[in-house]
Write a structure and sequence with these properties.
InterPro entries: AGP_Transferase (IPR051678), Aminoglycoside_PTrfase (IPR002575), Kinase-like_dom_sf (IPR011009). Pfam families: APH (PF01636). By secondary structure, the protein is α+β, with helices and mostly antiparallel strands. The protein contains eight helices and ten strands. The chain has a five-stranded antiparallel sheet, sandwiched between helices. A hairpin with a 3-residue loop joins β1 and β2. The longest helix is centred in the C-terminal third of the chain and has 22 residues. It starts with 23 loop residues before the first helix and ends with a helix.
């Protein structure tokens, strides 16, 4: 894969209980023991996200190390399913090259992927946001059209974001209350609660279950020459209802959001549920990461503000 998923000053913070310590020495040890053909290659820190820490290996490879043992389950999914998706999607996706086994210095699975060149999504790299929204919609349509190949919404392929909103009502309500205690009057949490409740009052979706990426935030998208080039980090890969898949479009400018919705042809009820999922994820992210990951908290706040701006204009 390619780019840092966190700013440089966020790389060494602890985000979760039970994080596994990792540094260049640990990574070099893993490579020497399990991938000696690559152990001589240059190694440099390439970024970190909420689930993984990454090191670039030479020019063509990326080492990805889960922050906790629980985060390692995504590696098994990616190893099994990404090679099957690759020929079916128009954009590039991660290509697994090696799945490492636990050792004394790193007690869980880890992985090596082919490096994907690309730029972070932002105003410096995307000039036509409407085209970007249309490109993202095409990727989502293609992924949701992929045959399930006998897979079902069980085990590692079952995640809350592909389920029903009502099943999340208790923890989302608590997250909104915690969020209000942190942001005060800076964000209109009362309106966010009304928008969340509006979606809860809708009939639950009855459409077919599909493949879901699960986390199409801008940090998981790469561009080249201003166009969407790759989708990375399939750790949230699951099967379920598509509503939550659309939620990250509130992380994009309004032009991209409008183009995306038009291209996917999202029904009004689906759009309202997608907005509710966007509220749920952002509102829970603020209290969870308030002391450890300020860049992510800023993303969550910006998402909630975009939702409120849209709601006030409708």
């Amino acid at each position: 894969m390619a780019l840092p998923r966190a700013r440089r000053n966020d790389l060494d913070v602890t985000l979760h209980e039970g994080e596994i310590p990792v540094d260049e020495g640990v990574v070099r040890s893993l490579l020497t023991d399990q991938c000696p053909q690559w152990a001589h290659l240059p190694l440099s820190r390439a970024g970190a996200g909420t689930d993984n820490t990454m090191y670039r290996l030479g020019d063509d490879l990326l080492v990805r190390l889960p922050r906790t043992a629980a985060k390692a389950s995504s590696l098994r999914k990616e190893l099994r399913w990404l090679p099957r998706f690759a020929p079916l999607l128009a954009c590039r996706i991660p290509e697994p090259r090696h799945t490492g086994v636990p050792t004394d210095v790193f007690p869980t699975s880890w992985s090596v992927y082919r490096w994907i060149d690309g730029d972070e999504v932002g105003p410096e790299t995307v000039s036509d946001w409407a085209t970007f929204g249309t490109d993202l919609a095409a990727v989502v349509r293609d992924l949701h059209a992929v045959d399930l190949m006998g897979a079902t919404r069980t085990g590692d392929l079952s995640w809350y974001r592909g389920g029903e909103l009502r099943a999340c009502a208790d923890w989302v309500g608590a997250a909104l209350a915690d969020c209000r205690g942190i942001v005060g009057t800076e964000i209109d949490v009362d309106t966010l609660e009304r928008l969340w409740q509006m979606a809860l009052d809708l009939p639950e979706p009855s459409g077919p279950q599909v493949w879901l990426h699960g986390d199409l935030r801008p940090t998981n998208l790469l561009v080249r020459h201003g166009r969407l080039h790759a989708v990375i980090d399939f750790g949230g890969l699951s099967i379920g209802l598509p509503d939550a898949e659309h939620a990250p479009v509130w992380d994009l400018p309004p032009e991209a959001r409008r183009a995306y919705r038009n291209a996917v042809a999202v029904a009004d009820s689906t759009w309202l549920r997608a907005r509710a999922w966007a509220i749920a994820v952002a509102a829970s992210g603020i209290p969870y990461y308030q002391h450890s990951y300020p860049a992510f908290v800023a993303e969550c706040r910006a998402r909630l503000e975009a939702i409120l701006t849209d709601a006030s204009a409708s």
